[in-house]
Design a protein that fits this description.
The chain is mainly alpha-helical. Helices cover 57% and strands 0% of the residues.
């Protein structure tokens, strides 16, 4: 993904997080007004994912999204540079 995004400077998401579900969540954060830029939206997504654990109840759709992308963030320790 890093090589793919090199030629696309307008994509402001670290390659390890450039997953359609992450981008969808970022767009949702922007539309909800919880962030003003893509960088802020990524940070909000990170905060949301950190807050979710086994004791938090979510919808099935939210659960499906979280189990898809949270491992990406955990493996990278939520860092933008790896």
């Amino acid at each position: 993904m890093r090589d793919y995004l090199k030629g696309r400077p307008s994509v402001d998401v670290p390659p390890q997080y450039a997953h359609p579900t992450v981008l969808t969540r970022m767009i949702r954060v922007l539309r909800e007004g919880r962030a003003q830029s893509s960088g802020e939206a990524l940070e909000v997504v990170k905060q949301d994912l950190r807050a979710l654990n086994s004791s938090v109840k979510v919808s099935q759709k939210e659960y499906d999204e979280v189990v898809t992308v949270k491992p990406l963030f955990l493996v990278c320790d939520y860092q933008n540079e790896i």
